[in-house]
Amino acid sequence: MSKLAALDQLLEQYQQLSYHSDPILKQRLHDAQDWLKIRIQHTHHALFNQPEYQLMAKYFINRLYGGPEFDDLAIQIERLLKYAHKAEKMIPENAIKTGLKSVGLAVLAMQLDEAVAAQLLKDYPANQAIDDEMMRLTLIKLDQKQARYQQLQLLDDLGVALDKYMRSFIMYAAFKMCKGTAAKYHFELMYDFIGEGFVAMKPMKSAEKFIHEFTLKEREIVEKVHSGQAYPFR
């Protein structure tokens, strides 16, 4: 069985999202994701601005929390699956495993955020600027508590995998050697998606520690939202 079979399943989940055929929902999804990214940057300002964590913070915001950037990547993933045997030869197995975790997190973020966007469209005008109170009420109505906890657990698992598999000099050297092959077959976006994880790891002593600090605070916010606190994001 192909090591990339799980990637095929993730792509299918992504393709089933409703926003692909609904431009109004797509715009609201991007609005919701923009709000979330700003909120995350504000919440984790002290953590994200530590010099050793700045690259990983950007990876989080741009790669793991969805957004328009993922649409282009998904197109390349679909094409890459047609050449799975070549991809498996040129990308180290542990890099594939870690990349799958990252892609899985991005797809899950899109699924959760699309539900938020759809609920916002039901309750508010499509052009109304999203504020904290709108988002608080929407999250309570959707009751995504357990799904958000699952998302954070998957993030913790990614932190362990990054430390375990992506710190090897041999692994990184092997991955760099694949760059020419990736360009030859036009898999640059997928290569960059994994490669940015390598680069973000370099200044850090531990990805697991960084992600644990991030998820700890995010769990506090999830709990505040669903326990009815008036200002959970502050």
TrEMBL record:
<dbReference type="InterPro" id="IPR058511">
    <property type="entry name" value="DUF8198"/>
</dbReference>
<dbReference type="Pfam" id="PF26621">
    <property type="entry name" value="DUF8198"/>
</dbReference>
<feature type="domain" description="DUF8198">
    <location>
        <begin position="18"/>
        <end position="232"/>
    </location>
</feature>
<protein>
    <recommendedName>
        <fullName>DUF8198 domain-containing protein</fullName>
    </recommendedName>
</protein>
<dbReference type="InterPro" id="IPR058063">
    <property type="entry name" value="FFLEE_fam"/>
</dbReference>
